[in-house]
Amino acid sequence: MPVIPNFDPAAVSASVLERLRATLSTQEGFVPLHVPTLAGAEWDYVKECLDTGWVSTAGKFVERFELELAAYCGVKRAVAVCNGTAALHACMLVSGVQPNDEVIIPSLTFVATANAVSYTNAVPHFADAEEKTFGIDPTKLSSHLDRVGEMREGRCFNRETGRRIAAIVPMHTFGHPSQIDELMLIANHFGLTFIEDAAESLGSTYKGKHCGSFGRINAVSFNGNKIITTGGGGALLTNDEVLADRAKHITTTAKLPHPYRYDHDMVGYNYRMPNLNAALGVAQLEQLTRFLEQKRSLAQRYKEVFETVSGLRFISEPEFSVSNYWFNTLLLDRGNENALDSILKATNDAGLMTRPAWTPMHQLPMFKDAPRMNLDTAESLAQRLINIPSSVGI
Ligand SMILES: *Cc1c(COP(=O)(O)O)cnc(C)c1O
User: Fold this and answer.
1) Which residues line ligand 1 (CB under 6 A)?
2) Best residue among 109, 221, 236, 358 to mutate for probing ligand 1, ranked by most atoms within 8 Å of CB
3) If exposure means fewest CB atoms within 10 Å of the residue's CB, which of 40, 119, 365, 394 is most exposed?
4) C-alpha distances in angstroms, 17 versus 275, 328, 330, 333?
């Protein structure tokens, strides 16, 4: 690893702190990484739920939220559920991932992606990240699958484990779209179901189309720290009506429609989004365009401010995409990993919240034996990434 002479961690963290302070000077007190902005009709819509008694999983806001979300993302159907992890789990279940299948996911992701695979009793198979998008590296994945993948009757098997590789779940890290075309080519070549973990990328577009509209079925999240929030919540997005119906069924306890009988035709899940949460979602969606504009302008300010710091750079959207800039990110140059802790410490001590990337999944105890390719870039990125305050109100 190249060591940059004269690179001084203390000096670089002082200069990062100074620039963050200047950019965030209008913020009072502690500045969190990301807080929700509840500045629209949230009170009115939630009050309507309380006044009418429609607080739970039946109620008009759930359907309204689904319709408006699907229209916004340019897909035929949205199915609202109680969180993004449940959405991912349901994506696996309805798209035919079977127990003991392998599912290719990035190692550099939030643990929900890997957990959802495990809930299905399938096995995560970790792919490396690329420096450009932080998403799955298509070139590396393709040569990895050429080596370990064996095609039998249109299905791909891992010759090292004997298991079928059923699906691939790219994740659009911090809102920056992955190399979707290249990854879809690989998925098609190896017969893998394409499922997007678009939890972080609502409002991001790739070549003009929304993230969450590319895979066969895809997941988004409305957790409190996401670009819009329903408190907790998530949704499946798809253009496939059959899959959407199946998703709705399986996430509503597989209850057969009937005015008074309670019949269920399989083991289902109680994953439906409550009306209270959907009321928040409808109000939040009305503000998403403004949120996106404000996040872009913050990203632009950060970009200018950090241009003059050597040894690191501010991450901008890949050229083929428009990012929602959910989390703004600084990336230390290779060789400067030793500045990570001093920057995190200096900024957090000063009340400006920053944090590193997640520990890569293959380094977590429960996934340490999972199949994987070489993961050098994911490991390196995890030692160099720093998320900086990104709330809409800044
Ligand atoms: C937020 C997130 C999810 C889903 O999280 P929930 O908290 O269950 O809504 C899934 N994947 C990624 C990458 C995320 O960031």
Assistant:
1) 83-85, 88, 109-110, 112-113, 171, 197, 199-200, 221, 223, 234
2) 221
3) 365
4) 42, 15, 12, 18
DSSP characters over 141-189: HHHHHHHHEEEETTEEEETTT--EEEEE--B-GGG----HHHHHHHHHH
The predicted-structure confidence for 312-353, as pLDDT tens digits, reads as follows 999 999 999 999 999 999 999 999 999 999 999 999 999 999
Q: 102 is written with which tokens?
A: 């392998």
Distance CA 191, CA 175 (A): 27
- For the stretch 31-56, pLDDT in tens is 999 999 999 999 999 999 999 999 88
Kindly report, residue by residue over 322-332, the tens digit of the pLDDT.
999 999 999 99
- For atom 13 of ligand 1, which residue has the closest CA? 110
Cβ contacts of residue 269 below 8 Å, gap of 6+?
Answer: 86, 89, 90, 250, 251, 253
pTM of the model: 0.97
Pocket test for ligand 1, best of 118, 195, 223 (most atoms within 8 A of CB): 223
